[in-house]
Design goal:
With 419 residues, the protein is an alpha+beta fold. Helix content is 36%, strand content 22%. It has two domains: 300 residues, Aminopeptidase (3-Layer(aba) Sandwich); 114 residues, Alpha-Beta Plaits, CATH 3.30.70. It is built from eleven helices and 16 strands. The strands form three sheets. Strands 1, 2, 3, 4, 5, 6, 14, 15 and 16 form a nine-stranded mixed sheet that branches. Strands 7, 9, 10, 12 and 13 form a five-stranded antiparallel sheet that branches. The longest helix has 23 residues.
Length: 419
């Protein structure tokens, strides 16, 4: 790390602080999709883009786009490299998740300008609005609009206050009737790259500041419903009970063991449990729970699902329970572009840093963008792996290294295009 990268990181941190001050809840960062704070944040990012001399537009679903036209003639002058991430947050969020990718894209343009570098292709920074899926039951909707994979049923989805997405979009200034206009033609795009905090402890544990994402984990979610028989907690002998919660408890240990034995970074999580009737003196007669299974490739995830189904049947028979396993979401593994991975690794190496490669266990806008364009992700170290939390932190030094890597990545693509 040099003095220059440290200064670069401090400038980025200052801009992240400014964006973090834009919130719907004073005292903590909460900026949900299409909220008043989202509107103010989008306007702030738009102003930053205009200050850099970019051509600024906003599409029908609220994505802010800042375009730097090609500075050199050539066959790629009408094509563009996309850099982006999201500016919506979870409730009581940290300031880096998503926001860093947008601020970094603008910082890359600043660095290119300050170094007098002109590109043989255009560069467009995208600030998406609905990556977190907190306000509405949607998934990567704004980046999906860019690839023509926006689902019409999302517009009918409602938030906790009963407001439909289509109505919130109109109030925000968007236009549900023009979502198709948001599609970016694949032929006009060189690729998409996203800088993001790791949101996990791997890089810190290994002593690496930066990592190149190999794939974004496939994810399958289930709703488990276990039916037993409620009964008096004092009069029902242990050997005669059909305790739904005890069945879930046994399954949770089995699922943990299956995940530990799996490959490809397999993880499994029971994240939400509801017990009925929920009284201290009643044996639970029914339990509902969520199950989230992820891996860096599809095969380990699918194998684990088959093993869990088999174990569910065994536990149900043994305990006299009825157990249903309903699939609620299924997203295949999303590999990142090999050429872009190599280019990012070379850029990291040019800084004297080790280029660790690792999968992403979390979903990102890059998943939606990869449906149409070559896509890549650069991870930067997160302190203790904390994310979706006010304690989220990445040092200015690491931020500077990350943006310098991204700048060299863009410069490398430009050199290749000119050759």
């Amino acid at each position: 790390m040099t003095f220059e990268t440290q200064q670069l990181g401090e400038r980025i941190t200052a801009r992240l602080d400014e964006l973090a001050a834009v919130t719907d809840e004073p005292g903590r960062i909460t900026r949900l999709y299409l909220s008043p704070a989202h509107r103010r944040a989008a306007d702030l990012v738009s102003q930053w883009m205009r200050d850099l001399g970019l051509d600024v537009t906003e599409d029908a679903v609220g994505t802010i786009r800042g375009l730097l036209p090609a500075g050199l003639p050539g066959p790629d002058a009408n094509r563009k490299l996309l850099i982006g991430s999201h500016i919506d947050t979870v409730i009581d969020a940290g300031k880096y998740d998503g926001n860093l990718g947008v601020v970094a894209g603008l910082a890359v343009i600043e660095e290119l300008r300050d170094r007098g570098m002109k590109l043989p292709f255009a560069l467009e920074v995208l600030a998406f609005g609905d990556e977190e899926g907190v306000r509405f039951p949607t998934s990567l909707s704004s980046s999906s609009a860019c690839t023509g994979t926006y689902r019409a049923d999302w517009l009918e989805a409602s938030d906790a206050d009963g407001i439909k997405l289509k109505d919130a979009l109109k109030a925000y200034g968007g236009d549900p009737s023009r979502i198709r206009d948001a599609v970016i033609s694949p032929g006009s795009v060189i690729g998409y790259v996203e800088l993001h905090i790791e949101q996990g402890p791997v890089l810190e544990h290994q002593g690496n500041a930066l990592g190149v994402v190999t794939s974004i984990a496939g994810q399958t979610r289930f709703r488990l419903r276990i039916e037993g028989e409620a009964g008096h907690a004092g009069t029902n002998p242990m050997n005669l009970r059909r305790d739904a919660f005890a069945g879930l408890a046994e399954l949770s240990v089995i699922i943990e063991r299956i995940a530990q034995q799996g490959t490809g970074g397999l993880v499994a999580t029971i994240g939400k449990v509801a017990v009925y009737p929920g009284a201290p003196n009643v044996v639970p007669g029914e339990v509902e729970a969520t199950l989230d299974i992820r891996a860096a490739s599809d095969a380990p995830r699918l194998v684990a699902i088959d093993r869990i189904r088999h174990e569910i049947e065994t536990v149900a028979r043994k305990r006299g329970l009825k157990i249903r396993m309903e699939r609620t979401a299924d997203v295949p593994t999303c590999p990142m572009n090999d050429d872009f991975q190599n280019a990012l690794s070379s850029a990291i190496g040019s800084l004297g840093e080790d280029a660790r490669r690792l999968p992403s266990g979390a979903g990102h806008d890059a998943m939606a963008m990869a449906r149409s364009f070559p896509a890549a992700m650069l991870f930067v170290r997160s302190k203790a792996g904390i994310s979706h939390n006010p304690l989220e932190y990445t040092s200015p030094g690491d931020l500077g290294l990350a943006v310098e890597t991204l700048t060299r990545f863009v410069a490398g693509l430009a050199k290749k295009a000119e050759a």
